[in-house]
Amino acid sequence: MRGWSTERPDDATTIAGHLLRTFGASEPLSGSEQVMDDAAARLLERLAAQGSTLVLDNVSSVDQVTWLTRRWPSDGSGPLLVVALSHDPGSLTLADGFPAESIVPLAPLEIADLRQLWRAEIRDERWDPYLDDVLRACDGRPGAVWDLVQELTRPGADIWHPEELVDRLQLAAVDPRLRQATSVVDPPARVWYAIVGRTHPGMSRRARRLARALADLPVAELTVEAMEAVRRGLDEDADNSAEGEPERAEYPHLVDPLHELTARNLVRQSEAGRYRMPREIRVAVRAIVTDDKREALRAALPSLVRRYAHLAERWRGVLDSRAHAASAARWFQAEEPFLRALVTASYPDEPGETDEPLLTLVIDDLATLTDALDVWYVRQGQVLGARVVHSSFGDLAERAGRPDLAMVAETRCAALARATGQFEDAAARLERVRRQLAAFGRSTRRTAWALRARLHHEQAQLHLARADQYHAHTSPTSDHGSGATDPLAAATRRDVELRAAERELQHAWAALPKKDTAGEITTLLSMAVVYLHQGAPERALDRLDLAETRAQDAEDATALAHVAELRGIAAWMQGRAPVAVALWQRAMTRFSELADHQGEARCLQHLGSAVLVAPELASLLVGDQRRPLDEVTAVRHAYTWLQRAQRLVAGQPESPIGRRYLDLARERVGHSGGLAQGDAEGVAEDHPARTDTSDDSDRRGWLRQMLGRLGRRLLA
């Protein structure tokens, strides 16, 4: 529960996301009580199904786990939950609602118990007169005693005098440097203050610089590759034989500073191969190793950010490759918390004596990281993580004096507000961007045009979202409150919004810089969506033809999948249902190959809903079918596909039309003699199919609502 950031512990929503992803469920999209309660219920269901025991260690605040404990069964019927808190005197509030027998308070160990632990490893009698003073400084914490024992017994360590250790432990309790380095001066921090204060003069200069850099980095763990980037930055920056190098290193056979730090137990390596400097050691190093303060971080952090910017950009590029998309998805899923910690860190923006500010050194690489994360968040539908990243980066860009990057971040925040139905907030953000863009200098003309195109495109998406909202009021029975409850007035407002979206997309097309192929494809796809909303499939196909040509030239597999999906909708509107389902099946296959679960889920909903409307289409989708399926079998297949679509986007905002058709399929399957299980294999195939009994208005309503789900995906 320590999290990836060294500046702040993970909040409840981030922790919920990590836990749910670990157990194969999607993270919550907001921190609201209702969403978090739903997340806790889904996690509890997964744990109960697997017979798991959940252990949450190093909880720094009860707020991190309250969302989970308030839903946990207090009668003992749920899975076993173990919560270990640290540094929180108010932790007893966590026990509210739990039976007394389930609470196990852990009191500090007595001096006699600590003495036994010490003497099991150290039998030197010269420690006896001072041992109680040493153990009292450990304040009943066996971990602190164990750290001291390891330091005193490690190979190559200097001989400690008992009086010196007692003096250093007592000094740690009052030294203001330690209190400046941390708000929590606990026994482990005092112990490591004494150890580092005693041993750091014997460290090589390279080891001291590396230790100081690791203590100041905004991330808690580093992969082997990340550690190499940190070391490369330090090696390229400084003269490592400068004044202060000891005459004889304590480990003369270790010329590698990382090996030196691991030999001293200052850096630990996990079984997964990641390097970590524990919190108490970081605190001690920041308080003691002051000769390389700021210089070490200025050398190490830009190198680390630059390396991960290159990695993120490379993996982002292959997210659209069918051969490597699955590997890229695994990389982003594993590294997203680390990348988020880098982007949301507090970078100092004051200059050094002769150098430019650290923030200025890293802002462009942070922009590259943010671009890659944005693509990943859009693909995964992770609104919460995207909001944190774009908001933090926008603040950094403003502090760095980069209005161009700040406007991109603000536009993305507007897109997130739109996606969550906060239209007024989205409009206000876009208006701020418009005003800033009007004042933007002409020295970067291409950048200004690119920003203008992005602004027009997002304004079009906002108009399209409002059109979908007004469409909900075209039914006389609608009780939604968008400001136009009369069906005729709502239909008029919807048409106005669609025309406005079309105009904004035309402006976006005109503003696109030359050779911006990705921007052209995105704009063409959005135009096609608008034309489909307007009931003009021929105009949509004209734009899709051009988008397909651009996507083929750019080898953009994701765009080609979107083209196939939209072609299917156009074919359905033209009454060519067999062509439509074939196109949706092709798009679903492409999305699946790209590990794009949202796209795959949409296509499954298209197919399942289409079969509910026209059951005879099922025979076109089930392999080796020589005769049409009967309606019961077809509906069971549709129910299976709709269920899978729901699982693929679990935890994301539910589609009303998707829920409607899933409920309809469940009802029709239930009437036919029971719910489908598994993939509906072995169902009867020898009954004649029934003809379509639905009317055209039902099909048009389904199409309009399905099209509304494409809006957010087309602004990557």
UniProtKB/TrEMBL annotation:
InterPro entries: TPR-like_helical_dom_sf. It comes from the Bacteria. SUPFAM superfamilies: TPR-like. This is Tetratricopeptide repeat protein. Residues 673-700 are annotated as: Disordered. Residues 684-700 have a biased composition (Basic and acidic residues). Gene3D superfamilies: Tetratricopeptide repeat domain.
